Each structure stands twice: as structure tokens, then as C-alpha cells.
Amino acid sequence: MILLISVVAGVVGAVLGLGGGIIVTPALTLLFGLDIKYAIGSSIISVIATSSGAAIAYLRDHLTNIRVAMFLELGTTLGAVTGAFVGGFLSAKALYIIFGLLLLYSSLNMLKKVNTELPTNVKPHPMAEKLRLNGSYYDKALDKQVSYQVSNVYAGLSVMYGAGVMSGLLGIGSGSFKVMAMDMFMKMPLKVSSATSNFMMGVTAAASAGLFFVRGDIDPKIAAPVAVGVLIGATLGARLMQRLKSRTIRRLFIPILLYIAIQMIWQGWGYKG
User: Fold this and answer.
1) I want to staple 11 with a disulfide (CB 3.0 to 4.6 A). Which of 129, 145, 190, 237 is the partner?
2) DSSP the chain
3) 0.90 exceeded by the pTM?
4) What gap in Å lies between CA 155 and CA 75, rounded to an integer?
């Protein structure tokens, strides 16, 4: 059963760029009654497996924009350090609500362009030119080469800094923020946003996995089937995503984004920390 759920998590994570943790963690805690710390440890492994399973296909087809990934990781890393250092001075309740509202706003904006296949009227940013962030890929669903420009570089970096603060302060993942920053603010194609988010999450998770292992939060009996299932699912998901149109991926992504937004607002409203 864990293996089957992990396969589904891998497919969803690879297609939407959210990692497998969004399914693995609640499934292990709610369905199997697993301690949350072991569920989170397995979730970290699932994110690495998702990223690894999808990486080859996405890199081969130039869907992953490594330059954008490394640039945005600067914001995430600085934000995480900030969150860890100033945790005692910031209101976690306010952060939950603010970022929940930001996700809610973004999901409603995504809803307005749910039938949009590729970004239009994109104004290229001078910094994107300097850093060579613009790119192109072959879209198998549209059967054509797609070139794209990156816009609003600083806005995307700011969102990622805020997501890093959230991650460092509250210990939550930020896959939804990564996709949102690239899709909504930087005006990148959704497929590129999803693939690049997958790559970024894998780098982040790999960096923190050692700490979870040393603390004993990764149980091999649980993490092993999760890793195998997610790896299989991510490999299938990577192939599936390239055959889907962006509007289809967006229709799958919006309900999940709405769910995360409402959950964050609800947690902030009732936060006791």
C-alpha cells in the first residue's frame, strides 16, 4: 500500500513540480498512523526521489532551466537563514496568513489564465539577459520549439526569499512558491516552471537529508518502499508531463494550490506557537 501511494506521489510531484511530500506525509500520518517525524523524514526522501526520477528526462529536453534554479536558490537560501535567525522576532501566525493569502491570490490569478497555453506579452528583464536566464525547449504536446523570455526577475527572487523565510522559520516545504514565482511573476512557461521547481527541491532536500538521517528521523523500512515507489512514479510522471498541455497541468495545479493556501490561512488563524 505504501508503495502504491508513493508511485502516485511520484507522478503528481513530477508533473506539478511540488515534490512527492504533499501526498506522502499526510498519507503516512493519516492512513498508517506513523509518527510525524518519520513521515517528514520519508517525505524528504520522496522529494529527492521525485527530483532524481524526473531529472534525466527534463534536463535532456531542456525543460529544466538550471540558471534560473541556481539564481532563485540564492533567495531561498538567504531566506531560510533569515528565518532561522530571526524566528524569535517574527510572528509565525502572521506569516502563515500572509503567505496563505499570497498563494490564494496567485491561485485565483492562475484561474483567470487557466486556458492559456504559453505566456504572452512578456517583457524581457535586463537582468535575465545579463544572467542568460532566457531559454527554449521542444514541447511534445504542441509539437514545436518554444522560446521564452524571463520577466520580473527581482519579483521572483523576492517571492523565493519569502518562501525561504517560511521554510527556515516554520520548517515547511516551498514547492508551491517555486512554481508560483516562475509562472506568475517571471512569466515562464508552466512546464519549465514545474521542471525547474523539481530540480530545486531535489537540491534543497539532498542538502538537508543528512541531518534527518543523523537525527534518526529516517526509518529505512518506511523510506525504502517510499523511495522505490516515488522513483517509479516520477519517471512515469516526467513522461506524462511532457505529453500534457500546460492548460491541463494548470487545472491540476490550481486545486492543490488553493488547498495549500486555505490550509496555511487556517493554521495561521489557529496557531498556538
Assistant:
1) 237
2) -HHHHHHHHHHHHHHHTS-SHHHHHHIIIIIT---HHHHHHHHHHHHHHHHHHHHHHHHHTT-S-HHHHHHHHHHHHHHHHHHHHSTTTS-HHHHHHHHHHHHHHHHHHHHHTTT--S--S----HHHHHTT--EEEEETTTTEEEEE----HHHHHHHHHHHHHHHHHH----HHHHHHIIIIIS---HHHHHHHHHHHHHHHHHHHHHHHHHTT---HHHHHHHHHHHHHHHHHHHHHHHHS-HHHHHHHHHHHHHHHHHHHHHHHHT---
3) no
4) 11
